[in-house]
Structure prediction request, 320 residues.
Amino acid sequence: MGRPDKEGSAEGGGRPAISAARKMAVSLTFAFLLGSLFVANLLYQPPEVSTSERRRLATFPELFVEAAGSSSQLGRTRAAIPNVISSRNLFTGSFSESADFSEQISLDSTVTDPDLFMDAYVQFLIRYARSPMTGRANPLGLSSGNGGAAKVLNPKFAGQFDEYALDSFIFRDGFRRIKAHILWEVFRQKDNNDIYMVGGNAAKIEKLDEGSVRMAGEKIQKILDGLSVTVSAYYSVIPEKGYFIAAQNGYPAVDYGLIEGILSEAVTGAEYIDIKDSLSIGMYYRTDLHWDQSLIWDVAVRLGESMGFADRLGSVGRYS
Prediction:
């Protein structure tokens, strides 16, 4: 057999040249798609509100923020500042150099939340730079805007821009629909971002926060204890849609018995009205997490029987 010629062999110039051309075409196509999406997103004006999600979309964040901050922000960060700064050795020197500030903060507090740390860090720098006792140069190059208010780089800019980029991406709703169909119909995933469908009803996987329930009960009791007159008080727990469809379809379900137990211990000055048996999945909107007020007559009757106004419901009548 004769030896293959050079053009037909792997060492020849024909096939490698074709392979290189294909690679170049793929690269150019990919670059064109990326560039087109980039330009399209620059020109795209996203809506202020997402109708499908029923929420306001994120806006482009401010690069600089007012140094002083709100009183609520200062109150939230003051307690975290001393140990945050000292544990990270951000400055040399002692807090006594800024005595006016040191008197307002607790030296025994700690912080692990990165966002809270950044708030505390910025607020400390602002006051540290303003202190007439330090004699130090401005550590962040704080600038004063109109009215003398110092401005600093927004420490949360990166995170806020990430939220804005996700919310303002062109064809966002279309991509979300495609993703949902692929997860449910191709990969047979049971939920999408904790939202699942059962019999045409959309529900959300809820996680019980016992601490929040206990805090809510304590706040209710605190309000009752602060009243100057004796009143007949009542409270109830409205179950979310998962109460009716989660457990029997293999989804995590909230333990409402645990919720009622926590509240019964925390709230001693009010009577609990159980309305779960007066509700059904058909009384909730199919694609929404809330109940339909036109369908909860049985709940009104149950509340009326417990609170003593059932005899007056006849004059009100059902919703039409």
